């Protein structure tokens, strides 16, 4: 193979590959549909010309038929008048008109056939155009769907890349460690000595408040003289009286004083 042939082959291969990359099937199909639709008016004009030729020949045939009838009548009239010379001239015209009529009849018949064929070809083209248009629209829809699927596949591939996956896993581990550390600190804070001391101090405050309440009730004569404060009960090892027990003692004291009176 010669050098020039090899260069041509390489050039054609490179050009074909470049065209394949930049060629958009949707645009090509849409342009094909437009080209097919643009040819319809041209076909209509061609069919109209064929039909016009047929009608013209039919009109000429009618005129020639009328001439033949008229010449025949003139020949008969000349013969009756004894004018053989005039009859002979009309006979010559009649023969020529008859020849023209026969030729025009054949042409008109052929034009009629051509007109029917042109109409049929135009109808077949329109039918084929509609069929191809429907197929092209389906292909365009399939191309759009394929394009969307390719974009979706690219999007899904971005989640399968190692770097992104490792990043997500690393961030998840860091967050899990922070959550675990926070929970551990919270648990240690809840069980620490400071927290227990705060609970004891809060309980001591409640006892002081109960002692103050009992003092007020003793001053108002609502309690018996032998009821010690809650703090004294705790020092002696006796359980502190609850508010319900204190109220029961008040009710019992008032009942006894009422009976003695």
Structural notes for this entry:
The protein has 261 residues and is mainly α. The chain folds into two domains: 3-161, Helix Hairpins (Orthogonal Bundle); 198-260, no CATH class. It is 89% helix and 0% strand.
Question: What layout of secondary structure does this protein have?
Answer:
Layout: H1 3-22, H2 25-80, H3 84-158, H4 162-190, H5 193-219, H6 230-235, H7 243-260
Quick structural summary:
With 261 residues, the protein is mainly alpha-helical.
Describe this protein with a few key phrases:
single chain, 261 residues, mainly alpha, Helix Hairpins, 2 domains, 7 helices, 89% helix
Let me know the largest β-sheet.
Answer: none
SSE string, helices as H and strands as E = HHHHHHH
Under CATH at level 1, the class of the largest domain stands as Mainly Alpha
Q: What is the total number of structural domains?
A: 2
CATH topology category name of the largest domain: Helix Hairpins
Shape: elongated
Mean pLDDT score: 76
| Helix segment tally | 7
Measured distance between first and last alpha carbons: 143 Å
Outline the low-pLDDT stretches: 234-241
Q: Got a strand count? A: 0
What portion of residues belong to β-strands? under 5%
C-alpha Rg (nearest Å): 60 Å
Question: Structural class per helix/strand content?
Answer: mainly alpha
Helix content: over 70%
CATH architecture of the largest domain: Orthogonal Bundle
């Amino acid at each position: 193979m010669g050098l020039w042939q090899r260069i041509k082959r390489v050039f054609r291969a490179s050009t074909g590959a470049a065209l394949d990359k930049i060629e958009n099937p949707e645009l090509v199909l849409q342009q094909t549909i437009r080209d097919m639709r643009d040819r319809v008016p041209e076909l209509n004009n061609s069919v109209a010309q064929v039909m016009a030729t047929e009608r013209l020949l039919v009109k000429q045939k009618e005129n020639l038929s009328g001439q033949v009838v008229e010449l025949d009548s003139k020949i008969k009239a000349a013969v009756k008048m004894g004018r053989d010379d005039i009859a002979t001239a009309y006979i010559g015209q009649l023969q020529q008109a008859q020849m023209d009529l026969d030729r025009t009849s054949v042409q008109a018949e052929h034009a009629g056939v051509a007109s029917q064929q042109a109409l049929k070809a135009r109808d077949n083209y329109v039918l084929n155009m509609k069929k191809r248009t429907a197929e092209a629209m389906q292909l365009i829809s399939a191309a759009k769907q394929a394009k969307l699927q390719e974009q979706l596949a690219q999007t899904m591939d971005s989640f399968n890349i190692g770097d992104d996956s490792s990043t997500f896993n690393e961030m998840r581990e860091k967050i899990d460690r922070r959550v675990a550390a926070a929970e551990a600190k919270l648990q240690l804070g809840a069980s620490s000595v400071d927290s227990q001391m705060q609970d004891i101090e809060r309980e001591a405050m409640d006892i002081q408040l109960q002692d103050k309440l009992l003092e007020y009730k003793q001053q108002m004569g609502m309690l018996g003289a032998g009821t010690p404060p809650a703090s004294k009960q705790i020092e002696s090892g006796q359980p502190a009286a609850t508010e319900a027990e204190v109220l029961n003692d008040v009710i019992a004291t008032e009942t006894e004083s009422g009976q003695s009176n």
